[in-house]
Amino acid sequence: MNLSEVTERISRKLEAKGAQPDRQKIESRLRRLAEEFGVNIDEAERTVTADLAREYNLTGVGNTSTELRPINEIVPGEWVTIEGKIVALTPPVSPSIAQTGIVADSSGAIRFVTWTRANAPAMEYGHWYRIESAVVDEYKGAPNLKIHSGTTISRMEKDVPLLPSITPIEELKPGVGSVRAKVIQDWEVSHDRMLQTGLLGDETGTIKFVIWKEEGKDKLDLDAVYNIFYATVDEYNGRLSLALNTAMYITDEGDIEVGRNETEIQGALVHVAPGSGLIKRCPVEGCNRTLSRQNYCPVHEIQPEFRYDLRLKAVLDDGIRARNVLMQREIVEALAGITLDEAVGIAETNPLGMDEIFYRIRNTVLGRYYTCSGSEFGGRLLVNSCTPITFKPEELAALLNRAGGEPA
Amino acid sequence: MKPQSAFEREPARRVFASELRETRYQFKEGEDEKSPTYVLLPSGIRSNRIFIVGTLTEKQRQGDQNIFYRGRVVDPTGTFFIMAGSYQPEAMQQLARIEPPAFVAVVGKPSLYTTPDGTCLVSVRVESIAVVDRDTRDLWVLDAARETLDRLDAFGTTDDSRKAQEEYGTQPDVYKKIVYDALTQVQL
């Protein structure tokens, strides 16, 4: 832990209470305690926080607070006391972690981690605990409750039934979330340890889900609706996904009309990017990367047993905005009027090889008007359907009216 | 959440030949060597890239050391002058393969030249060119008409169009007439 991190945390704590602390002052006080007086950093943080809180006349700042807080209100940078039920326990990923899981109260849920060094008593699944003086920080974009040596854990003798509140998929944030959703796609698993992966949807949108192989975990049925309580919401490259290993899922009667939140764009295809046409992909299970001309995969090196694929990376431009679009094999086949097998046949006999397919596809689609719909990801539209725009006489009539129909 | 990249590709504006021919004002945004150069279209928008569909009526190879191709592309309102040189080898070779007359779609960068006798020429440096069909040409005429009318509707309300008013003294009605005449040439 370095001093600027601690400084940041202290000033955020104070700012949350409406004060405007001077970061330099905080840092110099910390440094003085830590470097001149050999105080350990945790203690220095406690001291400085308490001193400043007194100076700004604030209450409820810092670790001395034993005020009970609802879980959905706590934010990174705070020391908190909560009462919650252990709704999930997950295997620790490192020997320095004693326990990880999810603790929930009626307001919400948060992931927690107990450090081995904390020497804290192990908490049991399904029981309520009072956790005093834990620290909230941020791990992979989600709030995370850290149980350390200064945290007091006491088991409570209550058992209030908890009804997690369901979050619409569109409003999920990294952390923990409960959804009512339908399994709309079941994908091929890309990893040995994966039990199932696919797409869940509710009225507001869709999200990828993963279940890792684990004792007692079952697959979801395609097209079935589930109540999924306390799943882990992860963020990767700006995109969210749900890991169901922490979750409890029960089938739900009834159906959901899944909101596809698809983007539809129209325009002229003004550019076909390199990497379009016939490509080779790495055959290693779960890799699927594009190989170079020399069959080199950035991860698995030379792969002579590659498999062919067709794709189109292009720009669709409506005159106002130019957007990147990415089309997969089926769509390219339909658009270019060539199947993957035909393309492979041509590439293997033509002196231009794979370039020949690039040119053919480019010459078929460049400059044409299309309507594309799909989902947007990372500044690129992943196209689910693409249809050529056809000439409509009524549009001509409407434009003629617009251009000449106005009274002078 | 960080954006994947701050780079936004410049859209390709739809413009009729008779409007592009009137273009005289060129400017650069920013001091950077790499900052884009725009022309200001009389209908009131900056453009660093255009998309046109018309008939390639003529094609010539020119130059000895530095080979380049020139061509004429005709739309219902006039002629675009296009060129592709050895700095755009892909585009040049695409153009070299096309035998006029043919319907072509062209994506390119407009630029202004002043000849020694002082006349100003607008030509389009080709980025991509492909042979298309008549339907695509008709769709383009509708598209160019719609976008030109949209620009004229917004004329006077945007910075670019106020600048165009200053530079060209654009009369929106004249351009409306051009659009109308172009549309009447699309056969049903």
Which terms summarize this structure?
heterodimer, A: 408 residues, alpha+beta, OB fold (Dihydrolipoamide Acetyltransferase, E2P), 4 domains, five-stranded mixed β-barrel, five-stranded mixed beta barrel, 20 strands, 38% strand, elongated, B: alpha+beta, 36% strand, globular, disordered N terminus
Task: Describe what this molecule looks like in 3D.
- The complex is a heterodimer of chains A (408) and B (188).
- Chain A has 408 residues and is an alpha+beta fold.
- Chain A folds into 4 domains: 3-55; 71-155, OB fold (Dihydrolipoamide Acetyltransferase, E2P) (Beta Barrel), CATH 2.40.50.140; 169-252, Nucleic acid-binding proteins (OB fold (Dihydrolipoamide Acetyltransferase, E2P), Beta Barrel); 263-388, OB fold (Dihydrolipoamide Acetyltransferase, E2P).
- Chain A has helices spanning 3-16, 23-36, 41-55, 329-336, 340-349, 354-365, 393-404; strands spanning 79-90, 97-104, 109-115, 128-139, 142-147, 152-155, 175-187, 194-202, 205-212, 225-236, 239-243, 248-252, 263-272, 277-281, 296-297, 301-302, 307-317, 322-327, 369-377, 380-388.
- In chain A, the strands form 4 sheets. Chain A has a 5-stranded mixed beta barrel.
- Chain A is elongated, with a radius of gyration of 28 Å.
- The N and C termini of chain A lie far apart (74 Å).
- Chain B has a single domain (13-184), classed as Nucleic acid-binding proteins (OB fold (Dihydrolipoamide Acetyltransferase, E2P)), CATH 2.40.50.140.
- Chain B has helices at 17-21, 89-97, 134-153, 159-168, 172-184, and strands at 13-14, 25-28, 37-41, 45-47, 50-62, 68-75, 78-85, 102-114, 120-131.
- With 188 residues, chain B is α+β, with helices and mostly antiparallel strands.
- Chain B is 30% helix and 36% strand.
- In chain B, helix 3 (134-153) packs antiparallel against helix 5.
- Chain B is built from 5 helices and 9 strands, in the order βαββββββαββααα.
- Residues 1-5 of chain B have low confidence and may be disordered.
- At the A-B interface, strand 13 and helix 7 of A face strand 1, strand 8, strand 9, helix 3 and helix 5 of B.
